[in-house]
Amino acid sequence: MRKGLLLTAAASSLALVGSLTACGSESGGESPGSDTKKPKIGVILPDSKSSARWETADRKYLGEAFKAAGVDYDIQNAQGDKQQFQTIADQMITSGVNVLVIVNLDSGTGKAVLAKAKSQGVATIDYDRLTLGGSAQYYVSFDNTAVGTLQGEGLSKCLSDMKATKPIVATLNGSPTDNNATLFAAGYNGVLTPKYKSGEYVKGPDQSVPDWDNAQAGTIFEQMLTSQPKIGGVLAANDGLGNAVIAVLRKERRNGQVPVTGQDATVQGLQNILAGDQCMTVYKAVKKEADATARLAISLAKGEKGTTNATVEDPEGKRKVPSVLETPVAIYKDNVKDVVDDGFVTKEELCTGKYAALCAKAGIE
Fold first, then answer.
1. Can you list the domains of the chain with their CATH numbers?
2. What is the pLDDT of residue 174?
3. Which of 14, 26, 141, 362, CA to CA, is 20 to 30 A from 106?
4. 273 contact partners, CB below 8 Å, separation of at least 6
5. Which residue range or ranges hold the Periplasmic binding protein domain (predicted)?
């Protein structure tokens, strides 16, 4: 896939209003003493441990969109703490947000927060992760089953390129409490299961990683490798898990010999791809997701109806949730450049130290 397939959203050149940034939170909008009551939007991000994207991309793009629209906003990060997640939500509702946007830590906590917001007349949006059994009015994400399909196809391509014969494939799924992890698995298992049944691949160890914890992922994969020393491919559900796998393979001097997948197109993941240690990642243009969420939240805060392009089934709540779904893109060594060209990561971030020569070789000038 070339650069033309990565669509970028053009942002209007508007004056930026002042913002106050603190550890784990950001707010901006109405000046002290203003008589004008503006819409106010609250956003709760999940953590900064499972993926770098929440702080490096989502916070940035959401904040920029809210500033450009001139609305009040408050963006905070629960840092993986469920109690803190609920406390932040309570504070935001008390402060008078019109709209609450959440990335749940699990559906139980998310469901409670959404119910309280609804009882206070606050409009709600599930961002990136659907809260099962929840009451969010809208959902904005990527086609997460398609993400998993790209991962399964990517691992198959890399195994084929290596001319692997009946490889043992290990799988590190995402958190069992994250509905997205379930959707990713549905996608990649849809690709891999027929290959197991035909005997083309051998199904190896398959385990979920609690809370997307990278340290646990490393321990889990070490145990997998002990039980199946001849693992020949790894379906890792995101770049963080993939990097944990690569660290173990590196100790065994097998990095680059065992294809490993990822997701999120993080700087670390892209560097692993350039180095030949990771076979692919999935790029989700977070700016498009954040911009779509901001547009929807601003409409709701102004009392207007939101615009969607899909509906997603909540199997637990037995309801169809109006949704905005964006399209993911597979990234291999030959199109890492597209992620840089799209502005998601910068050359300065990616092409440091030993990666400078690898970037030049990949056409990243």
1. 40-143+285-326 (3.40.50.2300), 144-284+330-362 (3.40.50.2300)
2. 98
3. 26
4. 279, 280, 281, 331, 332, 333, 336
5. 41-305
